[in-house]
Amino acid sequence: MGESSRRVLLRRGFVLEYVTLGWNVVGVVVLAMAAVTAKSVALVGFGLDSLVEIGASAVVIWELSGTGQDRQRRALRLIGVGFALLAVYLLVQSTWVLVSGFRPHHSPLGMAWTAVTVVVMVALAFGKARTGAALENLVLTTEGRVTLIDGLLAAAVLLGLLLNFLAGLWWADPAVGYVLVYYAVREVMEIFFSDH
User: Fold this and answer.
1) Reduced to 3 states, what is the DSSP secondary structure of residue 147?
2) Where exactly are the structural domains of the chain?
């Protein structure tokens, strides 16, 4: 790969990360407002997931700014820690909601934001996967999976909110949370226990 092609790809990687970062910063504010209005544990959880994604984007921006295997290893470990924290939080949150029988109110703002977030995060994840593969940058590729999980979590929260709104199935969103715990744990295992 030529130096000019590499610079273009690096620039694209930075743009993808800054868009992700900006989206999630706005998302934390929107989700906080929606969560308070609806008293929704799921929306609070998704807001916390957005904080994990902000941290992961910051790690990738840091890694793309430098070079070296040691820097890449540290960046991957930090992303792995983010996945682990997300898995623990989702496990605790989903279990607490199921055990307590907590029933959130309806949230049109939460439904609208999560619906748009699904589309945005899947598009960003696709861009990061392609750019990371072209750069042969494992950190960008791995963080693209964090972004995909963020999109899947948005879809799960949306599904839970819709099932609660349309059918009164309050338990739907914590049940879907367990599926996301599986994906997050799988990423942790991949980062910490496989050869890269």
Assistant:
1) helix
2) 3-193
Position 11 scores a pLDDT of: 95
Span 126-144, average pLDDT: 92
| Contacts with 124 (C-beta within 8 Å, 6 or more apart), sequence order | 16, 19, 20, 23, 144, 147
Does residue 187 have a pLDDT over 70?
A: yes
pLDDT at 120: 98
Residue located via tokens 């969560």 = 35
Q: How close are the terminal C-alpha atoms of the chain, in Å? A: 21
Q: Is the pLDDT of residue 196 over 80?
A: no
Q: Which residues contact 76 (CB under 8 A, 6 or more apart)?
A: 138, 139, 142, 191, 196
Q: Measured in whole angstroms, how far is the alpha carbon of residue 192 from the centre of its chain?
A: 19
> Cα–Cα distance between 61 and 54 in angstroms, integer?
11
94-109: pLDDT as tens digits:
898 888 877 777 889 9
Looking at CATH, the fold of the domain delimited by 3-193 is given as: Alpha-lytic protease prodomain-like (1.20.1510)
Residue with tokens 């940058």: 137
Whether residue 114 contacts residue 158, with contact meaning beta carbons closer than 8 Å, is answered with yes
CA distances from 145 to 102, 129, 130 (A): 30, 8, 12
Q: How many CA atoms lie within 13 A of 33 on its CB side?
A: 10
